[in-house]
Amino acid sequence: MAVHTEQQRKVIADAVVSMDGYTSTGAEDDMGWAMEHITSEQSEIMYEGIWRGVSTAVVGRVNWEGFTSVWPGLTSDPTSSARTRDLGNWLATVDKVVVSRTLEQSDLDKTEWTNARVARDLEAEVRSLKAGPGRDILVLNSASVIQALLRADLIDELSLTVLPTTLGGGVRLLPEGFSSKWRLSHATTVPTTGAVALCYRRT
C-alpha cells in the first residue's frame, strides 16, 4: 500500500538585481535605482503571486531594519494601492525569521511588526522550517542569507528580477566561486520598466 507523504516546503529566494549582478550599492542603499520597478503595478501583481503562497519569511538584519522603517508608513498611507496595503499587512503579521548575530528579540519587539524571531543558526533554522508544516518559505532580497542558503543547497527556487541598470559595484547577489545548475520555470517581461522577471528551479 502506498504511503502518503506531504510535500516538503519550498524555499524561494526573491531578489532584485542590476544587469551587472548587484542587489544593492551597499549598506546605505535606499533602493532608489529600483523603485520605479518595485512600485509598478506589474511588479505588485507578480510579487503577489509569490507571497500569497508563503507562510514564513526570512530576512537579514539590514533588510529587517530597512523594511520596518518604511513599510508601516506605506501600509497605513491611504494613497497606497490596495496591493501595497495587502502586502504590508502580510509582512506585518506573517511568521518572520530575522537572521542576525547582533539583534536581540527585544529589538524586534520594538517595531510595529509582530510574529518575528531572531535566528542565529540559519541552516538549522531553515532545515527545521522545511521539514515542518506550512506553505512555502520566502527569503526577502537578503544577499547574505541567499548566498549562505545557496552554499548549503537549501534554496529550491530563485526568483530574480533583472532591472535595466548597472550599479558598477556594491553587494553581489550570487556568491563567488559557487557553481550550480538550474532550469528556467518561467519568465515575464515588464514593458513599463524594462525589467525581466526570471524564475529558476533546481534541476
Helices and strands in order, then pairings?
Blueprint: E1 11-18, E2 22-24, H1 35-38, H2 41-51, E3 54-60, H3 61-76, H4 82-93, E4 95-99, H5 105-109, E5 116-119, H6 122-131, E6 136-140, H7 143-151, E7 157-163, E8 171-172, E9 182-190, E10 195-202
Parallel strand pairs: 1-6, 1-7, 3-4, 3-6, 4-5
Antiparallel strand pairs: 2-8, 7-10, 9-10
Helix pairs in contact: 2-4, 3-4
The number of E-state strands comes to 10
CATH C-level class: Alpha Beta
The average pLDDT score comes to: 93
Strand fraction band? 25-35%
Q: Please, could you describe this protein's structure?
A:
- By secondary structure, the chain is an alpha/beta fold.
- The chain has one domain: Dihydrofolate Reductase, subunit A.
- The chain is built from seven helices and ten strands.
- An eight-stranded mixed sheet has the order 5-4-3-6-1-7-10-9, sandwiched between helices. Strands 2-8 form a two-stranded antiparallel sheet.
- Helix 5 links the parallel strand 4 and strand 5.
- The longest helix has 16 residues.
- It starts with 10 loop residues before the first strand and ends with a strand.
Overview features:
single chain; about 200 residues; Dihydrofolate Reductase, subunit A; eight-stranded mixed sheet; 7 helices; globular; disordered N terminus
Entry summary:
This protein is α/β, with parallel strands linked by helices and 203 residues long. The protein has 7 helices and 10 strands. Strand 4, helix 5 (105-109) and strand 5 (116-119) form a beta-alpha-beta unit.
